[in-house]
Amino acid sequence: MRHLLTTCLLTLTTLALTGLPAFAAVQTREIAYDFDGTEHIGILAWDDAVADPRPGVLVVHEWTGRGDYVVRRARELAEMGYVAFAADYYGGGQSTTDRSQAAAWAGAARTDLDRFQRLGQAALDVLSSQPEVDPGQLASIGFCFGGTASLQLAFSGADLDAVVSFHGNPAAPRPGEVEQITGELLVLHGAVDPFVKAEDIAAFKSAMEAASVPYEWVDYGGAVHSFTNPGAGDDPSTGAAYQERAARRAWEAMRVFFREIFGR
Is the CB of residue 56 less than 8 Å from the CB of residue 82? Predict the structure, then answer.
């Protein structure tokens, strides 16, 4: 018994000293990058137990900015074996709880669609250049504003294998853009989201079907806008509210989607 205890202690000491993967965990680091003369600050998340480059996932925040929610989602993706980059579309790593400020930021970002798409490409370039990332395997996901941003990035012809929109606004691409989509799309939508127009949904689906773009659309019954975020509250009558069942199923749908595309 004494010999066994001594062996175990020596083994644990060796692992601690050498830093082997038994003690590895999800790590994060801030990365500052420039876009049109403004400093943007994203958060990279990865599991340092994995030595080889792995698929990278861009994670785009809601209209409130790069707050805790999007960083938590990036960490969850890292736990799944991806490298995730919580992008900053507003600059300075800003976030707010003020709806009028969020509306002003989001409106300004979306006014010029070409610039909106380039914002996404700048963040994707940062992600793909990280040593932990396999630049040949890239995806983008986003929530609300971020879902719209991820789809716009796909429309721009960005080199993406997969795009997932969680309760975004899936407007149809502009003429000539649908042919530029390089990957598969997964749109996870609240079936009674009052902020997305039925005609926009129809136009999006029609464009995808006409161009034979591989996409999947999932409606979650009873779900409104922001259904994945507990911070959205629990009152659907406001138009935005958390729904635990829809949130859980939507995240699992993304996991299955990624597993089919990236094999993990």
Answer: yes
